[in-house]
């Protein structure tokens, strides 16, 4: 499985492309407990559970945005 490095900004860029507008962000200092970076390797899930990723970042961002626009208050 090929490892691909992505950042939060990569996700934001894709969401901006879907909306065709700039999404304002506010940068700040890390909160207590925030981690510097996170790695994801689904190969153990594939090996033990037979689960494999079906979607790429573009599809995941589209699904996220679709859900958020239909549920602006989240689960409330």
TrEMBL record:
One of its GO terms (cellular component) is cytosol. It comes from the Eukaryota. It holds the Pfam family GDP_Man_Dehyd. It is an enzyme of class 5 (isomerase). Pathway: Carbohydrate metabolism; galactose metabolism. Keywords: Isomerase, NAD. GO terms for biological process: galactose catabolic process via UDP-galactose, Leloir pathway. Its cofactor is NAD(+). It catalyses: UDP-alpha-D-glucose = UDP-alpha-D-galactose. One of its GO terms (molecular function) is UDP-glucose 4-epimerase activity. Residues 14-63 form the NAD(P)-binding domain. Its EC number is 5.1.3.2. Gene3D superfamilies: UDP-galactose 4-epimerase, domain 1 (3.90.25.10). This is UDP-glucose 4-epimerase. It comes from Toxocara canis (Canine roundworm). The lineage of its organism: Eukaryota, Metazoa, Ecdysozoa, Nematoda, Chromadorea. The gene is Gale.
């Amino acid at each position: 499985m090929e490892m691909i490095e992505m950042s939060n900004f990569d996700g934001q860029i894709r969401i901006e492309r879907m909306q065709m507008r700039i999404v304002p962000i506010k940068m700040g200092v890390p909160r207590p407990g925030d981690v510097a970076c996170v790695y994801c390797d689904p190969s153990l899930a594939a090996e033990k559970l037979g689960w494999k990723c079906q979607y790429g970042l573009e599809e995941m961002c589209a699904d996220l945005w679709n859900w958020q626009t239909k549920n602006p208050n989240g689960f409330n």
